[in-house]
Amino acid sequence: MDKVKRESRETEVRQDESKKWQPASLLPEFTKQPGWAYRWVRVSLLNEADNMNVSSKMREGWEPVKHSEHPEVIIQADPNSQFKEGIEVGGLLLCKAPQEMMDQRAAHVNEKTRAQTEAVDASYMNQSDPRMPKFAEGQENGRSFGKGKK
């Protein structure tokens, strides 16, 4: 019977243990270019085109990112997609817009949010139902609770 020649475990070359398996993310990773904001825009839901959503995002300034701009993204092209050159995954299309424009959009949304919050607070403070005591953050009514200073 022939003996099987075996190497000892000390001489065995092991794989780099710093590399570990991890599950793939649902959306592919890509290199973000400076000066651009990125967003995944819904182009379909339950295999039905969502043209209204796409149209509103395009009017806001978003434009589809071409696959040629990010060749590091590995995806299977959808033959039925209306965005043949785009990066589309599961009904989501990768889009970009100038960062300056999106900063202006964020400032506009923040201002509207602030104005609406002030309107709600003012409306609440104008109510006069004695069963609902009023409390506004930042205002003191002279009462103290617990063992604090009098």
List keywords for this structure.
150 residues; alpha+beta; 4-stranded antiparallel β-sheet; two-stranded antiparallel sheet; extended
Explain what this protein looks like in three dimensions:
With 150 residues, the protein is an alpha+beta fold. The chain has a domain at 37-97. It has two helices and six strands; from the N terminus they run E-E-E-H-E-E-E-H. It has helices at residues 51-60, 99-125; strands at 36-42, 44-45, 48-49, 63-64, 88-89, 92-98. The strands form two sheets. Strands 1, 4, 5 and 6 form a four-stranded antiparallel beta sheet that branches. Strands 2-3 form a two-stranded antiparallel sheet. The model has no long low-confidence stretch (mean pLDDT 81).
